[in-house]
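Troubleshooting: if your tokenizer reports a length mismatch, compare against these two reference records.
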Amino acid sequence: MNTILLVDDDDYVINGLLKHIPWKEMGVSIVGTAADGMEGLNKFRELRPDFIITDVYMPVMDGFQLTEAIHKIDPNVPVVILSGYDDLANARKAVSTGIHHFLLKPPSISELEFVVREVLQQLNESQEQDELLSSYLQQQDIVRRSMKDAFFRDLLSTRYRLDELPGNRIAFMGMPERSSVQALTLSLVRSDVSARREERDWQLLRFGTGNIIREMLNAQLVSHPILSAEVLEYSDQEFVVILLGAQSQDEQLQELQEFIVKMSDAILENILQYMKLSVLAGLGTVREGYHELMDSYLESRYAVEIAEMNDWNRVYVYAESNETEPGKIVSMDAVRYLHDAIFQKQWQNAYDLWNVLSKDMAGGNVSLPVCRGVCSGIVSALWTATQTSDIQEESAVPGLEGLLLKLNRSSSARQMLEGMDDTVARLISQNKEDQVGKKSNALVERVIKEYIEKCYHEDISLEQIAANLHVNRNYLSQLFKRVTGEPFVTYFNKYRIRKAIELIGTGKYMVYEISERVGFQNSTYFSQVFKSITGYSPSEYNR
């Protein structure tokens, strides 16, 4: 509902307007009244009505002065003037000062109602236009943010030539046609404690981390207006900060990179302090052009791998990570191949790769922190593989927290590697057993899907199925019971009876016909099996 402020020094006029004009029918509320221009101005500041109806001649401040003062605050507020004199000069002045209507006192009810409705129509049209414009701008901003996110995600995974970049799309997103780019990868360390949290709790931590990153970037980049940043939530544990505009002039580059590293370290410190999460951080080099962003991102990922084997919660710069530090000689390729084998569940290959890596580290000049970083990553990967198994049985393998604690108690790299041999062997053995269990499940699933459910109406036996699958009949029988909890014959008969119940429900078949349709050659035997499973004979069940 629109609001009006009435300003007039004549109580008779104010009372007449309040009493005789059908304000509510017009969708208007009188928000206040004032006896002079100065009071009217104060009421306007306090109440902010949608428009004003005011007298011209009043003490302290007249109607024209009031209009001028109001329009200094908000030039779009409509003002209707009531004048007790048929004065052409006043009418001209009203037009020149932006007054919407000039009425002579006393106006008729119909005349004043017409003017009010006209002002309301103009107000509402203006409000609708403003709302449409605001909605359009808001939607456009959402579209731009979405396009930016998709654009940068694409650049991180796809290599483009300079002439392949979408120029019109870049312009629409409000970005410069060309810009230097630099990738900062922040990988959250999901510890054993956070891994046990419910997924909702982890997502809340992730959401809070994203807010910290964005808020700190907004606060820090104010001092360096040549820089801007886009934040991508690239995966469940990884944020990629894309820094734009870091020019590569020699005299500015070093100072700017020092600022970026310092800012990134501050972000990590806040994430650790408020979210209680450790972060692995890698910073790629500055590249000239959007099409080279992928190169900077890959560099930042490589630096993250270095961070994983050294001190967490600090930024590793790719240029620094290229140089092998004394006491930190570890083959990154060997570590990567081992993790790939674990991820692909190639357990024998993983065991062989560990033996090679272990010997290399034992024979090289590897410091204790680096050894701990490598071993912790391998143990975490192997332990996680055991937890994602489809068969969750009692395991002799201790929890991840206990395994990592054992590593941390090692006083030397050699002692740690000796303990790792036993841990890796046990974890791989556990995963092998789980893998065998999965294959067993798959075999039983095949028996159920391909034979029981498809051939229940045929005269088939476990011997025939075992022969078709090229497995031992006794082995298949034991396996079937271990996986399903029931002997093959019991499971098979229950499935046939379920199908028989469906046929009984149709009311179309005799008992002997149903018996034949579900694979029983003898209807008497069928009835006996039916009653042993359901507690009723087929004819009783039908009734």
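Reference record two:
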Amino acid sequence: MAMLEGSIDENPGTCAVLGGRSFIGRSLVLKLLQSKKWIVRIADSAPSLNLDLDKSSALSEAILTGHASYFQVDVREKSQITRAIEGSCVVFHMGATDSSITDFYHQYIITVQGTKNVINACQECRVKRLIYNSSADVMFDGIHDICDGDESMPLPWRFKDTLSELKAQAEGLVLFANNIDGLLTCALRPSNVFGPGDTHLVSLFVKGAKFGWAKFIVGNGKHMCDFTYVENVALAYISAEEALCSRVASVAGKAFFITNLQPMKIWEFMSLILEGLGHQRLTIHLPAWMVWSILVLVKWAHEKLGYQNNAHSILTPVLFHLLSRTRTFNCSNAQKNFGYSPIVSLDEGIALTVESFRHLAEDSPSAISQDFSEPSKADRLLGSGKVADILLWRDEKKTFTYFLASVLLFYWYLLSGRTFISSTAKLMLLFSVILFCHGFLPSTMFGFTIQRMSSSYFEISERMIKDAFMPLASLWNRWAVTLKSSSQGRDWNTFFKVVVSLYFLKLLLSFSFSAVAGVVLVLAFTIFFVCEQCEEELDRVMESSALGLKKLKGLLIRCLPVSLVSFLHDYMGKDEVYDE
């Protein structure tokens, strides 16, 4: 590695970490203190350090011994930055990381103007080295995949969000300031940093799981991504600083990607985190175009209705693009130029992260001991056979085929204007012609092999008949039990359910048969799927509704005349009347 002219800094002495309370900043501070080589100045915008010192013995001891100190710094005020970094030989600038801020001016002042102030303060205080915390997202335009991207890639002409664009500008300012007034600079671009204390990635997964959205996979689920454990990122900053201290020419003025060197499927990573915290593994695939259409529709509705954009919503258009694109990066330059090598593997990092968030699992509606192998209520209602597999979208292609065939039959019989017999005759004629022509086709045509259909194609086994009628039989038996219970005259809850069901049936019969059939067709392929995915939420709603009905029943009983209440006691029993 080529060396820049000048002497090697033998005694690094004091360093400053601007943004030392941030996720990456905290890990970097601990690593610097553990090395026993630094007096660390922690600078951030909060009035006090306000960290749990009991859980960080190294930081607690450093504060007591004077090896660490805290400065409240607003990066918009250069004088405050100067006060914090004066006497330091190296400054680690973590930069802005909060993408939830929607005020562009505020983001610009903090990210870009704040970085300008940091650079000017470093030059005035004769700081020798400045390392900026950039992000791999500065290379992502929100549209195109990035496969094994390296530092030779040009910046995109558009960015996925405002923060990425502003961080790219701040990174450019830092690199441009290299070797001016004796200041050596470089920037690191970590990709999807996670670990204990993470306030973004893991908390977003858990929040999505609690709202029921973390059961779905956007797209085919094959998109790869680089995730980086936070301790490895802190190590990369220390290694980069050592290279700048040695005046390595290939490091100064450059930007470097930092990853765990283990690309993983995005949805596999999310599933491992959620499974470790007691949530269900992601299994349901949703077409990316469908999710994007819904997001566009919701955004349009919010704008029309005058709603403010919710920065804390679970799935935003920006997050959609991150989850539906491949983004892997090559950090061989970091390995070659300053010897970066992750010390915590991806599997170990996931395990440590899950363990640190174990308190969230205790509050999770899905207990860790929950058995997800048990069939759902919707699956049991449909007989747990082929019909259940189709209506619950277990095989998307098969379900879509059946749905399309059902729609065509619905049109053929109910919307075409023909009678049932006429439609059946024409359908049989059409099949006969197709089969007759198929019999005359050669075995190969235009390079394609034509498969012959044997008579077994048209045979229906007893098993298929049983699977087809099992849901109907199960539903019939449930109704029979319900009617039997209702006929005894003592189960008033069942009686009211029957009355309400018959009333809704009467309402349905008042509509045309084709309209009812169309609604039933749509609901059959949607409502069971929705009920299975939102079973826990529906159970909670039903429990709340049942509790409310019991309270209402008790209120009504107390309002009845004493003679009528006495009659109900004798007829139904006291326990039945007061079952609240």
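Descriptive notes for reference record two:
- The longest strand covers residues 184-190.
- The chain is about 55% helix and 10% strand.
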